Structure formats: structure tokens, C-alpha cells
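Before relying on records like the one below, remember that each one covers exactly one chain. Contacts with other chains, cofactors or solvent are not represented anywhere in the record.
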Amino acid sequence: MKSLRNIEYVGWGFFAVMMALCAGPGIYAGLYFTYDIMPMAGRIVLGLVLASVVAAVVTFIVNEALHRRNLRKFEKKSKEEKKEKKRRKKKGK
């Protein structure tokens, strides 16, 4: 298993966990914010859609944060390699 410091992205597994966590509040919101004349199945499906949207947004935010963290590591490593290359070139003259 990868260390949490070395993880590059969160995938469908994280989305599924977030969906499961958001399903209860989403269904409650779907039941609370709709009229009683709407069929129960429709209200539950609306709640699950709300939960999936929230889970997708959270997953996107986490993926973006991980991407930016990895980009900073890559840029730092690239910058150090360029400095080292410059030092070796200067030393060789």
C-alpha cells in the first residue's frame, strides 16, 4: 500500500466512499426539500444525485490538491537538477 505522502491521486474508490458518506444526508435533503406529492422513489433518486454531486466535487478538490502538491515536488526537483547541471558545467570550464 502506498504511503499517504506518496499518493498521486484518489480514484473511484475514494468517490465511492464519499458517495456512501453523503448518501444519508443527500437522501434526507431530497426528502426534506421536495413536496409530498412527489413519488418516494423520485425523492430518493434526487437525494442520491445530490450526494453524487457533492462526492464528485470533494473528489475533484482532493485530486487537485494532490496534483498541485506533486507539481511543486516535480518543479523543486527539476530546479535542483538544473542548478546541479549548471554547477557541473561551470566546474568543467
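The chain is about 80% helix and 0% strand.
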